[in-house]
Design brief:
two-stranded antiparallel sheet; 4 helices; about 40% helix; single chain; mainly alpha; 2 domains
């Protein structure tokens, strides 16, 4: 099921990157867009979609109480094998020349 979600989310990201009208709909009404792609949410769950900018990046913490010690296999699964938190692709580096490690989607 996680792989199915990741595939659908990748499709949504790709479409948003190429279709500004779709991107604005995703930013303003993500639940509706997720539903269009067959991603159902439990009643009462809200979703906020934000977009990184060159000067502002978002890092998402897991929900409170969700932290636990993970083994190497669990870390690999949630990081997509590449270590980027929250997605299955990306990298950390100094692309903006600030000397800070910032996560970028690839």
């Amino acid at each position: 099921m996680e792989a199915d979600f990741q595939k659908k989310w990748a499709e949504i990201i790709n479409k948003a990157a190429h279709d500004q009208v779709f991107k604005q709909r995703l930013l303003s009404n993500p639940v509706s867009v997720l539903k269009e792609y067959g991603i159902a949410l439990e009643p009462g769950v809200t979703v906020e979609v934000v977009e990184n900018t060159p000067r502002k990046h978002y890092l998402v913490l897991p929900e409170s109480g969700a932290a636990k010690d993970l083994n190497e296999e669990e870390i690999r699964k949630i990081s997509g094998g590449r270590g980027h938190p929250g997605t299955s692709h990306g990298s950390c580096g100094d692309r903006d020349g600030t000397g800070q490690g910032i996560w970028y989607a690839s």
